[in-house]
Each structure stands twice: as C-alpha cells, then as structure tokens.
Specification:
Blueprint: E1 2-7, E2 12-21, E3 24-34, H1 46-68, E4 77-83, H2 87-103, E5 108-112, H3 113-124, E6 131-136, E7 141-148, E8 151-157, H4 163-173, H5 181-188, H6 213-226, H7 228-233, H8 235-261, E9 266-269, H9 276-286, E10 290-292, H10 295-298, H11 302-316
Parallel strand pairs: 1-4, 4-5, 6-9, 9-10
Antiparallel strand pairs: 1-2, 2-3, 6-7, 7-8
Helix pairs in contact: 1-2, 3-11, 4-5, 4-6, 4-8, 5-8, 8-9
Length: about 325
C-alpha cells in the first residue's frame, strides 16, 4: 500500500509518499518547505502561515511524487493532518488531500498530528510494544504509553507551556531570534550549565506532569535584574543554565514514569528531541533503553503522517469527505 500524505498543521508545508509492505513502512519521498516568513514577527502568524501553505502545497506535492517516481494514479490512499494545529493551515492540507482522493476515487483519512509523531518511531528504528513515548515539541510535552498501533494511554502532559515554547520564549528574551530552541542549544554548548541555578519546578499534582512557565518567568526576572551589559557578557552561560533547567524538568518526570510503569523502552519524538543536551542526559541515564526519532522525522513532516494514516486506514477504514479539521484535537484522539 502506498499513501500520499500532507502535513500543514503549522508553519511547514510537507508531503511524503510512504509505502507499507511486508509489515514495514518505507519512506519513498519526503519534501518539507519551512516558512521563513515568520522570523521577523518572533513567532508564527496564522494568516501568513495559511497563505504560504496555499502557495507551496502544489509544488511540494508535485516534487514528492517526482522523487518517489510515482503518479497519482498509483497512490492507494490519501491522507492529511486534521489536527491539532492552526485551523486555517489545517484546512489547506485537508481540502487538498480530500480533493485528490475524490478525483482519483481513492480512500482518504485524516490523521492526528500527535499520533503522527508517535509513528515517527517506526520510521526511525525497530521497537516492540509496549514502550513509553515522550513527545516534546513547540506546542506539546506529553508522555504516552504505547501498547500497540492506536492503543494508547496518555499518562502525562504539561500544565502550562510546552518545552519548545519555553525554549523559543527564552530565546526571544535573550534576543536570539525565532525559532530559538536550536539557537539556545548551540550557544549553550559553550556555556557553564551551573552558572545560574533556576528554581526547581515543584508540582503538587500527583502524576507525571511538566511545567515550564515558572522557568520562563524566572529567566525574565533575572534578565531585568542584571541588565543588558551582564546579559551580553554571560549570554552563553545563561543559555546553558536555562536549557539545563528545562532538560532536568523533562528527564526527572520521564524517568519516574518509566520506573513506576515498569516499561523498559523510551522513544523520544518531536522537534525538541533534536536538543543535544536532552539526548545526552537521557542516554547517560538509560543507555540503549532510549531511542530518538531520526532528525528528518522529529520536526513536522508528511512521512510520519503517512505512516499513521496507513495504520489508521488498516484498523478503522476510511474517513468521509465531510471530515472537518480539529485545531484542539487531543493528543491520542483518533
């Protein structure tokens, strides 16, 4: 089975041709067009994102088909992200995929973007069920117990900001630009992680929860107190200390969940899974028990949507042409 999958949940326009054969997924092509238009605004502007998707989607899909050396007539299934995400952006991808399915008389499915991230594990390495999946991205920080395809237990989440938001907002306060997560990561490699000890996050609620808003506020207060000269002289150390606090928050809760659940394996997915310090600490703690999605599947991409779409179709069948978008779709809602 071959699918053409489209991802337009935020500010990447992506298309991919994915094949499922002999029990394995194979990515035949993957094209991602990142939108640079948002940089000067310090964040994603929904209207600009939607317009950019409209402009890019046809050439992106065309290139994905060309790289896979396949025609639309040879596609067995069309799928696209239905949520969560920006409503106007989601509509572009869903309508494009539904139209192709209608014209070519083929089935269509709408895919949960977060379940797509979980399926990036199967594109990156071999892993058996059950396993714990840590989803860390710009909008989400979640722990999901993966028992099988589309058999999930959402056991933990952030109570406020996501880790990616904390990185981006911190980078903005440090005048590093947007997106800032990668810039903090690079700068922090030259800094002293123990330069400043940010307050340890305390969560009274029982369970496996994260919180990053307090760290963001603490950074803001520190920068206001110290002033521009101190900031410029110690920028790399501030970045390293701030990153360390975020990573400690993520790792502590995740390790506790692994131990309590008695699960042997951890998969880490999403854009923040690219963070070098997070990878370093988790590998120190878990060794071969932890695996990370390949870089090309960490950020938003059509390949993960294709794998999740094929699995959904095989288990639940196709969606109708009346399927809508769901900007606030839950992490493991089908």
């Amino acid at each position: 089975m071959k699918t053409l999958a489209i991802e337009t949940s935020c500010d990447e326009t992506s298309a991919s041709v994915v094949e499922y054969k002999d029990g394995k997924f194979r990515v035949l092509s993957l094209v991602v067009r990142s939108q640079v238009e948002h940089g000067r605004f310090g964040g994603v502007v929904p209207e600009i994102a939607a317009r950019a998707h409209i402009e890019y989607i046809y050439p992106v899909v065309e290139r994905a088909l060309k790289e896979a050396n396949i025609s639309l007539d040879e596609i067995d299934l069309f799928c696209a992200t239905k949520g969560p995400g920006l409503a106007a952006s989601l509509i572009v991808g869903i309508q494009f995929a539904k139209t192709l399915a209608l014209i070519h008389k083929k089935p269509f499915v709408g895919v949960n973007h977060m379940i797509g991230h979980i399926f990036s594990t199967y594109l990156s390495f071999e892993i058996s069920h059950p396993f714990l999946c840590l989803i860390v991205s710009g909008g989400h920080t979640d722990l999901v117990l993966v028992k099988d395809w589309y058999n999930y237990e959402h056991i933990g989440w952030t109570l406020d900001d996501a880790a990616g938001e904390a990185f981006d907002k911190g980078a903005r306060m440090l005048n590093l630009g947007y997106p800032g997560g990668a810039k903090i990561d690079i700068l922090a490699r030259e800094g002293d992680r123990n330069f400043h000890k940010f307050p340890k996050v305390k969560i009274k609620r029982k369970g496996y929860f994260f919180s990053f808003s307090g760290l963001k506020t603490s950074l803001m207060n520190l920068l206001r107190e110290k002033g521009e000269t101190w900031i410029s002289e110690n920028l790399k150390h501030i970045a390293a200390s701030y990153q360390e606090a975020i990573v400690e928050n993520i790792v502590e809760t995740t390790l506790r969940a692994l131990e309590d659940l008695g699960v042997d394996k951890l998969a880490v997915v999403g854009g923040v899974a690219l963070n070098s310090r997070l990878r370093e600490v988790l590998m120190e703690k878990l060794g071969e028990r932890v695996s990370f999605s390949l870089p090309e599947y960490c950020t938003d991409n059509g390949a993960m949507i294709g794998a999740a779409g094929i699995a959904k179709f095989l288990i639940f069948g196709e969606d109708g042409q009346d399927l809508s978008v769901y900007p606030s779709l839950g992490v493991v809602e089908i």
